[in-house]
Amino acid sequence: MKGYVFHGPGQSAWEEVPDPAVKEPDDAIVRVEAVTICGTDLHILKGDVPEVRPGTVLGHEAVGEIVETGGDVRTVRPGDRVLVSCVSACGRCGYCREGMYGQCRGGGGWILGHHIHGTQAEYVRVPYADLSVYQLPGTLADEDAVLLADIFPTAYEVGVLNGRVRPGDTVVVVGAGPVGLAAIATARLFAPERVVAVDLAAARLQAAKEFGAEAVADAGEAPEQLIADLTGGLGADVAIEAVGVPETFELCTRMVRPGGHIANVGVHAAPATLHLEDLWIRNVTITTGLVDTHSTPTLLRMAAAGRLPTRRMVTHTFPLDRMQEAYDVFGNAAETGALKVVLGVPQHEVVPVHPTV
């Protein structure tokens, strides 16, 4: 089969790799029907995730069909159409028993495309299949379902739930990329008074409006003042960081109100300054996290009912063998207008949710 292989910083290729095989009795082999690219994959290619070894097939999100299972797998069988979660869960360790699957100490957590071969291939081996794949309703299209492998659970759990969004809140989302847009959409499920999006790209700010932001601000034009004006000088109840650079995290600390919450979602590759000399007296709660995916069943039901704007996130589709082109389009989003790219589905033109730039 073929897969997209990381060979070191700046080096990758769609090439022949060995077919996966069942190694453990709780494994499943999935034939990939749809896969997407994550911003974390771009971080890996830049060398920001050094634990990913050269020779690893990338990817941690997919939709596909079960073709083989180990003898201990009970919840799925060959022929089932499933969502492959970005997080694998052993189900036995203390963290899994608490629903913190991202911190699994039994061999799971974020392993696909990280510690073992991932989903950007024609087939993938999924460990701990009973807790790491989800049967899909027939009404949910591949392009919708694949966004529930990572993007929507991450935004919802690490951003909205960790940030404790409540009715009547002012929520500011810094970064209107895919995770930020999903955070805007899922924050609105809790009836905040307003959601404000902050980004540098005009096209992404327009997309933020279409995903439900009542106000937007250019990150280079004093968004702190907009938040102050909207809240009588108090600040946002919840600030969600969805970029992963020091400047955006520090911006969140300046926009949050006393007693508010900062939910960091972005993947950081450089240190950020924590200004405790200003924050210590303000009762601010700061959370970080890797997604646990405990919300995936709920989000699947909501997507099947048409309650999540999943399809609007997909701006480009490709066949699997155009993986490098898809990476180029996704990695140059400022020029291409890409939000999410999906590979493997029957190719057709997808109308962008915002003008390209």
TrEMBL record:
Q: Which GO terms describe its molecular function?
A: oxidoreductase activity; zinc ion binding
Enzyme class name: oxidoreductase
Cofactor annotation: Zn(2+)
The record's keywords, sorted A to Z, are: Metal-binding, Oxidoreductase, Zinc
Which SUPFAM superfamilies has this protein been placed in?
GroES-like, NAD(P)-binding Rossmann-fold domains
Enoyl reductase (ER) domain: residues covered: 8-343
E.C. numbers: 1.1.1.-
PANTHER family attached to this UniProt entry: NADP-DEPENDENT ISOPROPANOL DEHYDROGENASE, ZINC-TYPE ALCOHOL DEHYDROGENASE-LIKE
What the record says about family reads: Belongs to the zinc-containing alcohol dehydrogenase family.
What protein name does the entry list? Alcohol dehydrogenase
Q: Lineage in the entry? A: Bacteria, Bacillati, Actinomycetota, Actinomycetes, Kitasatosporales
